[in-house]
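Quick one: structure for this chain?
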Amino acid sequence: MALGKVEPPQIKKASFKSKDNSVCPACNTVHQREQMFAGGGRLIAGKLTKELRRLYEKNKKYGRINPNDYVIVVCPKCLYASFPKDWSTLQGPDLERMKSHSGDRRVNIEKILGPLDFLQDRNLITGAASFLLAVDSYQNRSPKDAPTPKKAVCALKSAWYFDDLHSEFPNLGYDKVRDTLYAKASNWYMLTLDIMQTGAEPVDSAAPILGPDTDNNWGFDGVIYLNASLAMKFRDMLAETDEDRVKLLSKSKRMLAKLYGSGKSSKSKPSAILDMAKELYDELAQLINDMGGEK
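Got it. Here's what it folds into:
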């Protein structure tokens, strides 16, 4: 008896297109936002990294799934991008800047990632592009929209994507893009901490998206922790001399000390981030000491 042809397993869809139309405020293009199905055992959570990133294992039924693919709304025509809450609030000078930079957005992003089609289902490439485009779009938004913390989160998540891209395509220079994004994220996290003191932007309004990932919002504790973590890792890109690096790391260490405080965990401060903060504090203290200590 002849054996029949064995068909490869069908990969099920992890997302759907919303029935409601999204109208781009910059070019009036109508499209349906893509969203991920909830439940169904689609997400297989892995470990939490030191950058507060939740890793997910590949699903046999659904293939690669990353909830971050669907976080940013992107216009498929002019590539204006934002978090859903900010999508329709674009107006005035911000709107005019977004309109005038439409061509530049496509040219710049396609130099890095090639031709893009946001009418198709999101994937690793368009996931990376969505956050890179969001960074670009928030560069053109006024302080009332709290662009600085949003740029920090988007640059960090984009760096995660480019790390994944570098693993998939190690000879295309994605590691250089990744490290540049990490350094930019670090700078914007530092600025966010300053803004929290001065009130130059309504940072509280950005609290729901500070994450940085989708499974657990570490909020302002995450900002403090990531500021210190990224400053330590990318200190050579952020400061030119050892003296300036020590100043940078010392400031981050002082802020970090406020995070873990007494070391007692609570609902608002789970033990996971307190333990990571304490470990990072000790690493910072040792590094500062090895570099000659605080002056």
